[in-house]
Design brief:
single chain; 0% helix
Protein backbone atom coordinates (compact mmCIF):
# COMPACT_ATOMS: atom_id res chain seq x y z
CA UNK A 1 0.00 0.00 0.00
CA UNK A 2 1.22 3.46 -0.85
CA UNK A 3 1.12 6.15 1.79
CA UNK A 4 0.53 9.63 0.52
CA UNK A 5 1.78 12.60 2.50
CA UNK A 6 0.62 16.17 1.84
CA UNK A 7 1.87 19.47 3.16
CA UNK A 8 1.60 23.17 2.53
CA UNK A 9 -1.97 24.19 3.29
CA UNK A 10 -2.92 27.14 5.42
CA UNK A 11 -4.62 30.50 5.62
CA UNK A 12 -3.99 32.98 2.83
CA UNK A 13 -5.48 36.33 1.88
CA UNK A 14 -7.45 36.80 -1.33
CA UNK A 15 -5.07 37.26 -4.20
CA UNK A 16 -2.33 35.39 -2.40
CA UNK A 17 -0.56 32.16 -3.24
CA UNK A 18 0.34 28.83 -1.69
CA UNK A 19 2.29 25.76 -2.66
CA UNK A 20 1.04 22.29 -1.83
CA UNK A 21 3.38 19.33 -1.91
CA UNK A 22 2.76 15.61 -1.91
CA UNK A 23 4.96 12.53 -1.87
CA UNK A 24 4.38 8.80 -2.12
CA UNK A 25 6.01 6.55 0.42
CA UNK A 26 7.31 4.01 -2.06
CA UNK A 27 9.64 5.37 -4.71
CA UNK A 28 9.85 2.13 -6.68
CA UNK A 29 6.16 1.94 -7.53
CA UNK A 30 4.79 2.62 -11.00
CA UNK A 31 2.87 5.88 -11.05
CA UNK A 32 0.64 6.43 -14.06
CA UNK A 33 -0.88 9.69 -12.88
CA UNK A 34 -0.84 12.02 -9.91
CA UNK A 35 -2.72 15.12 -9.00
CA UNK A 36 -5.12 16.96 -6.78
CA UNK A 37 -8.81 17.08 -5.94
CA UNK A 38 -10.55 19.39 -3.51
CA UNK A 39 -13.70 19.41 -1.45
CA UNK A 40 -15.33 22.57 -0.20
CA UNK A 41 -17.82 22.55 2.69
CA UNK A 42 -21.15 21.18 1.57
CA UNK A 43 -19.88 20.27 -1.89
CA UNK A 44 -18.70 17.14 -3.62
CA UNK A 45 -15.05 16.43 -4.19
CA UNK A 46 -13.91 17.87 -7.51
CA UNK A 47 -10.92 17.45 -9.76
CA UNK A 48 -8.40 20.30 -9.66
CA UNK A 49 -5.32 19.28 -11.62
CA UNK A 50 -3.47 16.19 -12.75
CA UNK A 51 -0.35 15.07 -14.56
CA UNK A 52 0.24 11.76 -16.27
CA UNK A 53 3.46 9.83 -16.75
CA UNK A 54 4.25 11.46 -20.11
CA UNK A 55 4.05 14.89 -18.53
CA UNK A 56 0.71 15.97 -19.92
CA UNK A 57 -1.31 18.08 -17.55
CA UNK A 58 -4.99 18.81 -17.12
CA UNK A 59 -6.74 21.48 -15.10
CA UNK A 60 -10.26 22.23 -14.02
CA UNK A 61 -11.62 25.25 -15.84
CA UNK A 62 -12.00 27.09 -12.54
CA UNK A 63 -8.25 27.01 -11.86
CA UNK A 64 -6.74 27.31 -15.35
CA UNK A 65 -4.20 30.09 -15.52
CA UNK A 66 -3.99 30.31 -11.72
CA UNK A 67 -2.80 26.90 -10.56
CA UNK A 68 0.25 25.03 -11.80
CA UNK A 69 0.97 21.37 -11.22
CA UNK A 70 4.48 19.95 -11.39
CA UNK A 71 5.91 16.50 -10.79
CA UNK A 72 9.10 14.74 -9.86
CA UNK A 73 8.85 11.23 -11.27
CA UNK A 74 12.07 10.09 -9.67
CA UNK A 75 10.92 11.00 -6.19
CA UNK A 76 7.23 10.25 -6.83
CA UNK A 77 6.33 13.74 -5.77
CA UNK A 78 3.85 16.26 -7.06
CA UNK A 79 3.24 19.85 -6.14
CA UNK A 80 0.54 22.38 -6.85
CA UNK A 81 1.19 26.10 -6.95
CA UNK A 82 -1.97 28.07 -6.23
CA UNK A 83 -2.04 31.72 -7.19
CA UNK A 84 -4.61 34.50 -7.38
CA UNK A 85 -6.59 32.70 -4.73
CA UNK A 86 -10.15 33.65 -3.92
CA UNK A 87 -12.71 32.54 -1.38
CA UNK A 88 -14.08 29.91 -3.75
CA UNK A 89 -10.75 28.10 -3.56
CA UNK A 90 -11.30 27.41 0.13
CA UNK A 91 -11.40 23.64 0.49
CA UNK A 92 -9.60 20.58 1.69
CA UNK A 93 -7.14 19.59 -1.03
CA UNK A 94 -6.43 15.90 -1.56
CA UNK A 95 -3.47 14.47 -3.38
CA UNK A 96 -3.68 11.18 -5.25
CA UNK A 97 -1.30 8.79 -6.91
CA UNK A 98 -2.58 6.35 -9.53
CA UNK A 99 -0.89 3.00 -10.12
CA UNK A 100 -1.94 0.02 -12.22
CA UNK A 101 -3.40 -1.40 -9.02
CA UNK A 102 -5.54 1.57 -8.03
CA UNK A 103 -5.47 5.00 -6.47
CA UNK A 104 -3.95 6.07 -3.19
CA UNK A 105 -5.08 9.23 -1.44
CA UNK A 106 -3.70 11.58 1.14
CA UNK A 107 -5.65 12.71 4.19
CA UNK A 108 -6.06 16.20 2.81
CA UNK A 109 -4.70 19.61 3.63
CA UNK A 110 -6.87 22.62 4.38
CA UNK A 111 -6.60 25.76 2.27
CA UNK A 112 -8.53 28.74 3.57
CA UNK A 113 -8.73 31.99 1.64
CA UNK A 114 -9.90 34.85 3.84
CA UNK A 115 -8.94 38.41 4.67
Amino acid sequence: QVQVMESGGGLVQPGGSLRLSCTASRISITITAMGWYRQAPGKEREFVAGVVSNGSTKYADSVKGRFTISRDNVQNAVSLHLASLNAEDTAVYYCFFRTPWGDSWGQGTQVTVAS
